[in-house]
## 1
Amino acid sequence: MALAGVSLAIARGEFIVLLGPSGSGKSTLLNILGGLDVPTGGEVRFADHRLTGADEAELTRYRREHVGFVFQFYNLIPSLTARENVALVTDIAVHPMDIDETLALVDLTARRDHFPAQLSGGEQQRVAIARAIVKRPEVLLCDEPTGALDYATGRKVLEVIARVNRELGTTVVVITHNAAIAGMADRVIHLANGRIARIDHNARRLTPDELSW
C-alpha cells in the first residue's frame, strides 16, 4: 500500500513539510490532500467538506475553489507570457487577486511580459506559484518546488512560498527530499514505507537565508 494508517490534522495557516525518501508515500498523501487521488479507505476532510465519497465534480470544485498546486516542473503554457499564464486561472476563480499584484508578490513585475522560454528556471517556478495563488487558495500544495533548481534560485522560490504563508495566511504543505528545508516548517512529517515515522515541531521557523543546505 502507498499509505497505511496515516492519521494527520493540519491547522489553518500552518507550514508543513513532508519529508522522506522516494516511495515513502509523500506524493500520494499530497495528492489525496489535494483531491487528485481518492484513498481506498479512511476519511479525508477539509474544513466542513467531506472529501471521502465525493464525486469527480465535487472534487473538481474543491480543487478549483480551495487548493493551489505547485509542482517540480512548471507546466506553463509556452505560447503565453508570464502574465497571461497567471491570468488564465482568474477565469475560473471566484474572488481572484489582482494579476499584477500577484506577480509583484513573487517579484516578477519586470518579467510579466516575457514568455517561459525567456525566463530562468526560478522565474518560471515563481510564475507557477503566482498562478497557484492568484485564485486565493486556502491551501498551497508544493511537490518538490526546488527540486530542479540550484541553491540560490531555490532559496528565492522558498522565500516566495514563505511569504505567501506569512502574508496571505495560506496553509502550505511542501514535499521535499532536502532535509534543510524542514527548518522553515511549523511541523515536519517524516514518512517511511507509507506511514508517519515521526513528527517534529519547530520552536522557531527559519528563514530561507538561515537554512544550511
## 2
Amino acid sequence: MKHCTMKLALAALAAAAFAPLAAHSADAPAQPAAPRKIKLDLAKMSKTIRTAWAVKLLQNPEDFKGDIIQIVGDFYADEPEDEGGERRYLCALKDAAGCCTLIDVEFRPREKLSWPKDFPEEFTPVTVNGRVEVVRDGKGDAMPRLADAVIVRQKK
C-alpha cells in the first residue's frame, strides 16, 4: 500500500511539473535517423527531477514514442521463461532516495552482443540510450522499451 501511495504522490508531482511543458508531444516531428540526438537525458538530471520524468515515462509511454532518451539505473537480465525464448535486458530506474525501483525499462541493443561477455556485470549502474517503443504487457498496459539501445558502462 505504501508503494501505491508513493506512486500516486509522484504522479501528482509529475502532472504539476510537466503541465507547462508543451515541447514533449506525441505530435512532435520525428527525429532524423542520423545523427543520433538525445531528446531527454535522465542521466544528467537531479534525482528528484529524474524521478518525476521516470513516472511520466511509466504513465504515458506514448508521449515519448520515437524519441531518443537516455536513462540511468542498475543493469540486469531476465532469463528466458521457456526454451528458445529471448533473454530480456533491463535497466532499473530508482526513486529519488535510491532505495526502490520505480520502473524497469527493457532495452534491445543496437548491435548484436553476446551474453554475458558483452554486457555490464549485473546489478551495476549503467546509462542506456535508445529510441522509445511502446509495448504491451500481459495485462495490455502500455510499457516503454528502448530499441536500438546503446549501453554506456559506469563505475560504481
## 3
Amino acid sequence: MQRIVTLDMEGVVTPEIWIAVAAHTNIPELRVTTRDEPDYQKLMDQRISILTEHQVSLSVIRGVISELSVLDGAREFLDDLRQKYQVVLLSDTFEQFADHFMVQLGHPHLLCHRLDVDDDRVKRFVPRVVDAKKQAVTGYQKLGFHVTAVGDSHNDISMLQQADAGCLFRSPLGLPDKYPDLLPLEAYDELTKWIDESFGT
C-alpha cells in the first residue's frame, strides 16, 4: 500500500503564529490557541473580533510572521521524510500567513484555509469544509493510501484518530492523558523513528 504522512504545521514544524502576534501587539487575549480552545470556529471568531477592536491589520500580522523562523530541526526533519514518503502539511493556518514558512521549509505541499480580507483588515473566516484535516485524511484513505498523522493540539485529534497511525508531538500538558491511544513524542528523531515503524499499524 502507498503511504502519505500528514503533519500539522504550527507547533510541529513552525512556531505558534498567534502567540507571536500577541507578544508584538501586547494583546494577551491573542495568546489563546487551539491548545486552549477546541472549537476552532469559536477561536477564530474571537481572534477576528480582537483584531477589529484593536485595529490590527493583516500587514501587521504578516510583518510579525516575517520575523519568525521555523522550529529548530524542522527543515531537516521534513527533508528526511520527503526522501522516503509523500508528505502533506494539514493546517488550520491561512494562505496569507503561510508563505513565509513555506519558503523556509522548501515549499512542502500545504492544505490550509484562506481569510476573507478587505482593505488590509481581516473580516471573517469560513472553513473550506468542516473538519478539514479529518476530511483530507479520509480522502487519502479512499484513494488507497495508508495515512500516518502527526499533530499537537485539540484541532488535530479527529485527524489523528481517523489516520491509520497517529501521534501527538509536543502537545500541551494534559492532552495525552485524554487520548492515551495517541503516543506523545517530543523530539524529531523520536518522531522519525515512530513514523518509520508505524507503517502497517
## 4
Amino acid sequence: MSKYKKLSHVVYKCDYHIVWVPKYRFRILQGEVKQFVEEDIRMLCEWKKCEIQEMNVQSDHIHLVVSVPPKVSISELMGTLKGKLAIKLFRSYPKMKQKPYWGNHFWARGYFVSTIGIDEELIKRYVKYQEDEEKRAESQQHKFDF
C-alpha cells in the first residue's frame, strides 16, 4: 500500500482515527450485532471510496482508522456511517427500538476524530526552511550554467 493516494487532480494522505459509541454506551455491539456492524462499516466505507486501515468493534464503542479522499468530509462520512447503520440495525433487530434501548436513536451524538499524518515537527521544519533549500538548489544549478 502506497503512503499517498491519487485521484484525477490530487495526491493525498488523509488518514483519521475515529471513535464513536452507542447511545448510553450500552454494551450491545457483541456477537451477531458486532459482525453485522463490521460488515456494514466495510461496505459503507467502500461505497464512499474510503480505505479502512484498522477497525476494532468493542462491545460499547468503535475505533476506525480510515483513509478518506479529500472530496469526502469527515462529518459526511460519519453521518453516512451512523445513519445508515442505525437504520439497518433497527430493520434487522426491531427489538432494539423498544425500551430499555433507544427508540429511534442508536448512536450517541457526536464522535471523536483525530488526524494521523506525517510528524508535525518534520512538516514545520520543511515549511520553515523550504525557501532556503530552493535558493540553495537554484544556486547549485546556476553554477553549471554556461
